[in-house]
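Collaboration report, partner site 2.

Our partner group contributed sequences for two proteins of shared interest, and the home lab folded both. The records are reproduced in the order in which they were received, starting with the first partner submission.
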Amino acid sequence: MPRKQKLPAGMWKRGGVYYARFRKNGRYVRERLSRSFDVAKEALNALRARADRADFGIVDNDYKWDTLKKEFMRWAQQSIERPGELQRHLEQFEKYLKVNSIRQIDHEYVVGFREWRLVQPIYPAGLKVEKRENYKPKLPSPQTVNLEVATLRAMLNRGVEWKRIGHNPIAKIAPLAIDEPRKQRRALTVEEAGKLFSHAPAWFVPILRLFATTGMRHDEAVQLLFSDIDFESRALTVRANVAKNGKARDIPLDEQTYALLLELREAARDRRSIAGKTPPGRFSANHVFVTAYNTPRKNNLLRAFYAVCKRAGIDGAEPGGSVDIHSLRVTFTTLAMEHGASPKAVQSILGHSTLALTMKVYARATEKAKRDAISAIPFAAAKAPEHVLAMVQKEPETRTASKVAAQG
């Protein structure tokens, strides 16, 4: 019987694959080496030598992408409000060109990634491949690409801080230029909101009222389940996995919206999968808002919203205009604050991370209202100067990736 192979210290074998497993200065090192024993020994020696160099502050960038990404995401889970966003950002780099080692990342790699990313079409989730040729997709904005690069930069900064790599090769790369200011949304007036509800079809009214009376985001509303609603306490919960900031929050319901949701729950008892119409696996009895085929509503609300606004005579409700579905969130914030609501209570309902963000939304909405009030005088016109408009139109920086980059 052949003698069992003796492995060097710091190596172990599992299922025909050799792994490195040792501790160095309190850090646990575990990496896959090879299926070949001789190759594994060389890799283990190189790995130990690299760990020894780190003891003397000599660290290079020959570090595995997967390992650093895993360490970074483990840190993000404990430190960042929305780690899932960082995960999605890093996955874009893997789609572009999978790297094995951090040493492959340099200025040229990022420039190439940005050129590739800016022309990648964005299709709605669930859109079948055969239907894409008739759909005009959006393209990522420079802001989106800058955020993705900021996440990569943040990961490399953490790698330097943790002494996994020697330097961040993209630390000083300039972001893409952004020529156009972000869209300025306006709040609807009380009169416009009333017209919106009165001109909407019956199926759309509960959705519009929910947006306008809770300030919920589009994705939070369309993913709302009956199980998220406490009908006894007349409140709903935005689940953590649905909320943009990854934190659950409770929102009270006004009487009319509550009554509409109660009607939908009763009607849902009779929902059935429609033969030849409801796609397999898409039927839902628990989603609050469903299509005519009893599938969860997703990306078809904006078109219906514009159509209702047109019938109601609401100005600015068009692609690129100042009114869209998110304007109802601004409407909720503005009307609540103007009628004496506590700013902290509004912040809690909206799910904003800071009160400053809530106040910025309110300030942007009311700046135009104040000028419109003056302009309503027959012999007056209050037009904001260009430099003021630019400041008003700028969105507050709330994206998690930007915060992480700033920390780096």
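Second partner submission, folded after the first:
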Amino acid sequence: MKLPAGPKIPLWLLNQQLQADPFGCMDVICKRYGDIITVMSGSTPIVYVSNPSGIKQIFTNTREITARGALNQSFAFLGGNQGILQLDGLRHKHRRKLLMPAFHGARIQAYGQRICELTEKIMSQQVLGKPFLASPTIEDITLRVGVEVVLGLHEGERYEKVQYLFSSVLKHPQSPFHKLVMKLPFGKRNFGHWSPQGHFFYLRQELFQLLYTQVEERREQADPSRTDMLSELILASDETGEPITNEEVRDLLISPIGAARDASATALAWSLYWIHRLPLVRERLLEELDNLGDYPDSKSIVALPYLSAVCNEALRIYPTQLFTFPRLVESPVEVMSYELSPGTVLIGNIYLTHQREDLYPEPKQFKPERFLEKQFSPYEFLPFGGGARVCIGATFALFEMKLILATILSRYQLSLVDKRPERPKFGGLLCYPASGVKMVMYGQRQRQRQPHQLMIN
């Protein structure tokens, strides 16, 4: 086996460098070793690829290279043992087919008006002239949308409790205190509800139990006319023709809601940062939105070329997901002229692919027009991964991004509080704004002509 070159430092030290400066660390490694590198995890070689032709080989060669669910077991604690990330083979393919309708076609169009209503409701709560953090504000919006689309909950005590528990479980591991405690000798021990790790386990158990209760109750009152993801899953059969168990239904619901809250919100926070940091981008975007007239429908908004380019550029320059999900070499295979042996792990480096100067001239610059001038292949632009593990909610995520941005920009006058560049911070799979994008609202946006309301039909 001939492995690509790569850094010789221990994996734990490399991870620390990645946590401290994710993009700077990867830029240095790429400059020294190129677009295919090896990092050793014990005796297991992990090969990172940022060359589009190599990524195509990884995604399309499903015989020698497999997307095993076992490689994603580190996410099982948050997503459940039977979540979509932990499944593989025919079972994975079957469950993806069940989940996808909720995020595609006419189904997502029906959520257009609700997305705009929730956005306006949350944004209107901001105090004029008082700084606020865009990231948690947008997270509130996207979590509410996710809970409604996936669970079909719209209001009430359970609606609020699900949101609280989801938000708490997802935020807990990222808190500075939790990270500090985890470095201590006994930090990972569960000493009960009042210890950091014990409290985390308690929140997770509360969330899982609440979701299981929701599944049980909905199955007892099954309604074929409902179109949320939960309603479809409880009426569906598995690949053997048997009903899907309540435990598996529960686990299948967690990742879509978590992705809606985290990945979509992070991409939106970065979008707001870039739009308000670059006045020319904001002006062109507002002009495009205003040209839609008084009552634009969701299809018209989503089809806006410059709005689409801005969203794509935000996902390119600071992708919320830095890496693809790992693949495993099952039998000897050649990738970019390297002979790889079984047991080698392959991971696409999304960030470095998006930073290639041969694809994206001046890659550090935010230039939405590049997406108006060229169409990129799914191996050149892959913010949602690719192949068998491509995000099932990619279409919905872009739909949601565009409507939320259109609502905020059309209605409110905002600006950044801090003029210094926003620093990216790596946590888990996501790369989010370190300071949360601090902004201030000055009031309703003043237009030269009669203001209009976004009406999504």
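Feedback sent to the partner group on the second submission included the following. The two ends are 58 Å apart (CA to CA). The first helix runs from residue 11 to 20.
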